[in-house]
């Protein structure tokens, strides 16, 4: 195997800087272990020569590339952004560069991206949630690459996770809402297929309904994609039905903000005419008026812990125990007792 | 150079699928050019063997990795998310995978990420804005890698760009505001150093002030980082000064939403007591109450065109002409004529 175009080598850099190739490697891989004056000399040579650490060479030298890959379902609406930012900061402190791909909530795209990141030599991967084709899990095992899951805690899953209990935390919110007297619950869920967070949140609402002894017909569910516009459309469908709900529980804050927007357009007062809840506690949740009742997800803490766990896996080549973080109900102005129109009608 | 761990090769896949290695390459690089039945057979062998296309081998075979890198300043607040999503969709239609890094608006981190993406074999790069150390530009030229800039149109810059005129579009908004009678203008800008968008938007406001024959002291500028909280703090500083402005023009919508939030806390009515403007027209801009006057950036169109341009550069190994898109003033409820307190006082 030869290098396709003539490019400066590790040797060239070592000669220019007057150090050994091992020292150049250390400067590139673990700069914090090299004294400043040497590192500066080496990095000057690297820049002047336009040297790019070669993937193959680095794998052979250090067996790592100091690159971590993350695949998130979407970059829009900041659902994953805050957690990912903290994840990146944690990685960077240890000398890793984060490369992110977004899969548009599509498992086929996620698989392409997993393969691309592995092919690009990622030392480890962060994935969101546990729902995944067994074939791609087998592929990851065969590649022997450290993989951590975030946003969904499941100690029984194949992959270790740093996350929270989507089901229990949504149940806690539904318990509260039902405890306030709501008996007709509209749900705007994300597409549950291939999305354990969406599936478990919906299951949490059904748990609360069962626990309260309500019939299954207390709940009307619409599944749609995560977006403000789709949330608005689903809300309109729920509210123009024969028996509109007194509370609309949304699978995340983005859907809920869409619901609130549509409520305004329909002339419905929130929470007097209808209560609305979200999930995630993104910044938007406290900016809308009234502020949105939601489930607070500890995004930054999750990102920091995920970085620590994945670095541990990469550095020591072993798995880590899954970690559960709390996600708590956050009551704000968008929820009230159900209005006069509650209970059995028509 | 040998492969560090024993792994299935292209040959193994070709044998298992009963096709030539060239056909396997085509299935991996340009699957749309392979008939379905063959592609399915090959991909089945790829999966069963756990084959990962090797970076070096692919570079040698096709001289490309079908990976494009993008480095954006931040993943938070959805400023770049919509444009990037459209960029990714455009790339994907042509068989490219997008890997994204976010630099926290720091040039040193951006340089690390540029080097990491080049080292991982990216076929091309998308960068935001033109302000960049000449050394890293020289490095990119030496690597002979296609690089396109977005979010900032500058036909005179070294790198081709698909973007808009930050200066003129902000000037148009400032012209409008001054035309309404505002004479004391507070500006909450992002840090201008290393950020041409921030620098040019501020210059656009000064252009409008000069054109209107107002003195330089008509403008009070606070530079801060892009965040809702920092926007709120800067707004408070402006409004509690001896001569508070009648309009606060913000470098982007995120800062402006922070200003609106703080206005509410201070008991100031927007726009009666003070007008507020943003820039970008992110979704948030029309969700706040009153809706935010801003400059509409054609995020999706910019992302689509950037994908087309960069693919052209990668496919044909040549540069492309820069493309300018319109960014238009979008008047909404957050701006009104200045109140009774306008003009020369104290």
What does this structure look like?
The structure is a homodimer of 346-residue chains. Chain A is of the alpha/beta class and 346 residues long. Chain A has 2 domains: 67-164 and 298-327, Rossmann fold, CATH 3.40.50.2300; 166-296, Response regulator (Rossmann fold). Chain A contains 13 helices and 12 strands. In chain A, strand 6, helix 9 (196-211) and strand 7 form a beta-alpha-beta unit. The longest helix of chain A is centred in the last third of the chain and has 18 residues, at 299-316. Chain A is elongated, with a radius of gyration of 25 Å. The N and C termini of chain A lie far apart (78 Å). Mean pLDDT of chain A is 89; it is low at 1-6, 54-62 and 342-346. At the A-B interface, helix 4, helix 5, strand 2, helix 6 and helix 7 of A face helix 4, helix 5, strand 2, helix 6 and helix 7 of B.
Name the features.
Rossmann fold, six-stranded parallel sheet, homodimer, four-stranded parallel sheet, 13 helices, 346 residues, alpha/beta, 2 domains, disordered N terminus, disordered C terminus
How would you sum up this structure in a few lines?
The structure is a homodimer of 346-residue chains. Chain A has 346 residues and is an alpha/beta fold.
- Content-based structural category of chain A: alpha/beta
Number of folding domains of chain A? Answer: 2
What fraction, in percent, of the residue positions of chain A are helical? 40-55%
CATH topology of the largest domain in chain A, by name, is: Rossmann fold
CATH architecture heading of the largest domain in chain A: 3-Layer(aba) Sandwich
Quote the average pLDDT of chain A. Answer: 89
């Amino acid at each position: 195997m030869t290098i396709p175009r003539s490019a400066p080598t590790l040797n060239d850099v070592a000669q220019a800087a007057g150090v050994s190739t091992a020292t150049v490697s250390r400067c590139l891989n673990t700069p914090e272990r090299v004294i400043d004056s040497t590192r500066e000399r080496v990095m000057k040579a690297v820049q002047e020569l336009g040297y790019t650490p070669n993937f193959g060479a680095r794998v052979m030298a250090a067996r790592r590339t100091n690159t971590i890959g993350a695949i998130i379902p979407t970059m829009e609406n900041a659902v994953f952004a805050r957690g990912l930012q903290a994840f990146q900061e944690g990685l960077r402190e240890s000398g890793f560069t984060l490369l992110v791909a977004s899969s548009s909530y599509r498992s086929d795209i996620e698989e392409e991206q997993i393969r691309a990141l592995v092919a690009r030599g990622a030392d480890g991967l962060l994935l969101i949630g546990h729902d995944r084709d067994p074939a791609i899990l087998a592929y990851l095992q065969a590649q022997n690459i450290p993989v951590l899951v975030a946003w969904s805690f499941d100690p029984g899953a194949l992959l270790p996770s740093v996350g929270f209990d989507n089901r229990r935390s949504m149940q806690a919110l539904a318990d509260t809402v039902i405890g306030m007297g709501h008996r007709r619950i509209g749900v705007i869920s994300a597409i549950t297929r291939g999305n354990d967070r969406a599936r478990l949140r919906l299951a949490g609402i059904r748990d609360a309904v069962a626990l309260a002894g309500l019939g299954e017909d207390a709940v009307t569910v619409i599944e749609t994609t995560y977006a403000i516009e789709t949330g608005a459309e689903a809300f309109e469908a729920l509210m123009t039905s024969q028996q509109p709900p007194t509370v609309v529980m949304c699978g995340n804050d983005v859907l809920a903000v869409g619901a609130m927007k549509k409520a305004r357009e329909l002339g419905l007062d929130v929470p007097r005419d209808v209560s609305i809840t979200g999930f995630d506690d993104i910044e938007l949740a406290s900016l809308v008026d009234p502020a949105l009742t939601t489930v607070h997800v500890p995004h930054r803490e999750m990102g920091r812990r995920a970085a620590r766990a994945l670095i541990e896996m990469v550095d020591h080549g072993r798995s880590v125990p899954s970690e559960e973080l709390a996600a708590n109900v956050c009551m704000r102005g968008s929820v009230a007792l159900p209005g006069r129109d509650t209970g059995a009608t028509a």
